Amino acid sequence: MAVRRSRGWARGAAAFAAVALAVGAGRRYGWDGASAVAAFREARGTLGPWAAPAYVAAHALTLALCPPYAIFFEGGAALIFGFLPGVACVFSAKVLGASLSFWIGRAIFRYFTSAMEWLQRNKYFHVVVKGVERDGWKFVLLARFSPLPSYIINYALSATDVGFFRDFLLPTVIGCLPMILQNVSIVSLAGAAVASTTGSNKSHIYSYLFPAMGIVSSVLISWRIKQYSSALAVPEELQSSPTNGNDNGDAKLASTPSKNTSSGKTRKRSCCDILYKQRSTLCPQSKANSAILYSIYAPKALSDNPSLQDVCPMAPQGERKLFMNGFLCKHPSTILASDFKTLLLNHAGDLDNIVRSSVNMVTTTELPGLNTLGLSMARTDIAPNGVVLPHSHPRASEMMFVHGGSVVVGFLDTKGRLFQKSLGEGEVFVFPRGLVHYIMNYGFNLATTFSVLNSQNPGVVGIVHAMFATDSDVVEGLMARMFEFGEMGVSDNITAGFPWAF
């Protein structure tokens, strides 16, 4: 802590010394306020109609390349162009610079895994990732109103999965206005004051009116955004309230007296009062309805246990003892510790294939101890530019952990919506049961993932294998029709007459 304080004081002293030297040099060489205004005006006259485009390009580059000159550009805009044109120029440069920074950062973090790994080690970056995942464009808008430099926000957001137009560009367009108004207004007021002291006739009332309105607007917008950000915070009592329907906790809440401030009398909380505070608590009539529904659906839920085979027709009376849904258990006296151990996941598979990937699946057949536990495991190794082709597990959901490298994963729901994410080392993703999903390695290093599936025999339905390996004239005709749709381009208009979406 003492070292940080000493560094902070040293930086502050260095900044103060630099400002003092600049002020002293300006006084010595005649660089006073009037001379500065005249120099800026002369530069504008020299460039002519190219002054504004040149300014926007230069300021956008300073924002993208991160030199500490942005504040000087924003202040100089008022001196060169005046208040309203200066605001327009700074606004254009801000949007262009933010877009340029976003795509530069996305290219760097996508193609240089070392840069992404360095960023992921920063604890504040995880705050950004969680904020973007939870609030999307709202988080980006609030970040624009924070005191952090804009180039830090631009590059941090480029490393996340935030979308460019809706989640990045539009909040940037809205969020950069208050700081632009504030910076340009302050310098514009200073320029008007200098002009008045030099006896200039251009010091009219609007020279003060528009900058003053800009400062007031920035303060009001910042205050409103602060109120909005505080409204996004989740109340502490809602965060700490149980959501799993703890009966004991509900009983305590129902019997806890609360004060009636208007009458001074004590009364017990009604059941619906508790429902307002705690969503998991049910009113008596709701509990009765829930009991009725449970009595109807519970037997069916208990009878529909997940199948462990693809098909399981009922055997005739004389054959029912020959097979079962699952595997018979060993005699307890023959169970060994080796039944619960496997070495199949401690090495990578063969990557010398067309898809440059391998999957080692461990089910009850490979690890007998998994029988009746409803679990299986898999190790997936993917070389750079490798892929795990689209497939589904009809009997299990899958939770995947990225052990090394980086991957792009995704799945499609029953409405055809794509859910896709880029994952780094240590991150987890879940594929819901029965949905088509895939894994790709767009990095430069080997990627390794480990998965746990909630079935001892999850099954695998490979889309490519199912369509291309099947020897059937009907399937070939079906594939030909599918390729016709691919050439036409699938849209909502084409699929509107289908009985369901494919």
TrEMBL record:
<dbReference type="InterPro" id="IPR032816">
    <property type="entry name" value="VTT_dom"/>
</dbReference>
<keyword id="KW-1133">Transmembrane helix</keyword>
<dbReference type="Pfam" id="PF00190">
    <property type="entry name" value="Cupin_1"/>
</dbReference>
<feature type="compositionally biased region" description="Polar residues">
    <location>
        <begin position="255"/>
        <end position="264"/>
    </location>
</feature>
<dbReference type="InterPro" id="IPR001929">
    <property type="entry name" value="Germin"/>
</dbReference>
<keyword id="KW-0052">Apoplast</keyword>
<comment type="similarity">
    <text>Belongs to the germin family.</text>
</comment>
<dbReference type="InterPro" id="IPR011051">
    <property type="entry name" value="RmlC_Cupin_sf"/>
</dbReference>
<dbReference type="InterPro" id="IPR014710">
    <property type="entry name" value="RmlC-like_jellyroll"/>
</dbReference>
<feature type="binding site">
    <location>
        <position position="398"/>
    </location>
    <ligand>
        <name>Mn(2+)</name>
    </ligand>
</feature>
<feature type="domain" description="Cupin type-1">
    <location>
        <begin position="352"/>
        <end position="476"/>
    </location>
</feature>
<comment type="subunit">
    <text>Oligomer (believed to be a pentamer but probably hexamer).</text>
</comment>
<keyword id="KW-1015">Disulfide bond</keyword>
<feature type="binding site">
    <location>
        <position position="437"/>
    </location>
    <ligand>
        <name>Mn(2+)</name>
    </ligand>
</feature>
<dbReference type="GO" id="GO:0009506">
    <property type="term" value="C:plasmodesma"/>
</dbReference>
<feature type="region of interest" description="Disordered">
    <location>
        <begin position="239"/>
        <end position="266"/>
    </location>
</feature>
<feature type="transmembrane region" description="Helical">
    <location>
        <begin position="205"/>
        <end position="223"/>
    </location>
</feature>
<keyword id="KW-0464">Manganese</keyword>
<dbReference type="Pfam" id="PF09335">
    <property type="entry name" value="VTT_dom"/>
</dbReference>
<dbReference type="GO" id="GO:0048046">
    <property type="term" value="C:apoplast"/>
</dbReference>
<dbReference type="GO" id="GO:0030145">
    <property type="term" value="F:manganese ion binding"/>
</dbReference>
<feature type="transmembrane region" description="Helical">
    <location>
        <begin position="79"/>
        <end position="104"/>
    </location>
</feature>
<feature type="binding site">
    <location>
        <position position="393"/>
    </location>
    <ligand>
        <name>oxalate</name>
    </ligand>
</feature>
<feature type="transmembrane region" description="Helical">
    <location>
        <begin position="52"/>
        <end position="72"/>
    </location>
</feature>
<keyword id="KW-0472">Membrane</keyword>
<feature type="binding site">
    <location>
        <position position="398"/>
    </location>
    <ligand>
        <name>oxalate</name>
    </ligand>
</feature>
<keyword id="KW-0732">Signal</keyword>
<feature type="disulfide bond">
    <location>
        <begin position="312"/>
        <end position="329"/>
    </location>
</feature>
<dbReference type="InterPro" id="IPR019780">
    <property type="entry name" value="Germin_Mn-BS"/>
</dbReference>
<keyword id="KW-0812">Transmembrane</keyword>
<feature type="binding site">
    <location>
        <position position="391"/>
    </location>
    <ligand>
        <name>Mn(2+)</name>
    </ligand>
</feature>
<dbReference type="GO" id="GO:2000280">
    <property type="term" value="P:regulation of root development"/>
</dbReference>
<keyword id="KW-0964">Secreted</keyword>
<dbReference type="GO" id="GO:0010497">
    <property type="term" value="P:plasmodesmata-mediated intercellular transport"/>
</dbReference>
<feature type="transmembrane region" description="Helical">
    <location>
        <begin position="169"/>
        <end position="193"/>
    </location>
</feature>
<dbReference type="InterPro" id="IPR006045">
    <property type="entry name" value="Cupin_1"/>
</dbReference>
<dbReference type="GO" id="GO:0016020">
    <property type="term" value="C:membrane"/>
</dbReference>
<keyword id="KW-0479">Metal-binding</keyword>
<comment type="function">
    <text>May play a role in plant defense. Probably has no oxalate oxidase activity even if the active site is conserved.</text>
</comment>
<protein>
    <recommendedName>
        <fullName>Cupin type-1 domain-containing protein</fullName>
    </recommendedName>
</protein>
<feature type="binding site">
    <location>
        <position position="393"/>
    </location>
    <ligand>
        <name>Mn(2+)</name>
    </ligand>
</feature>
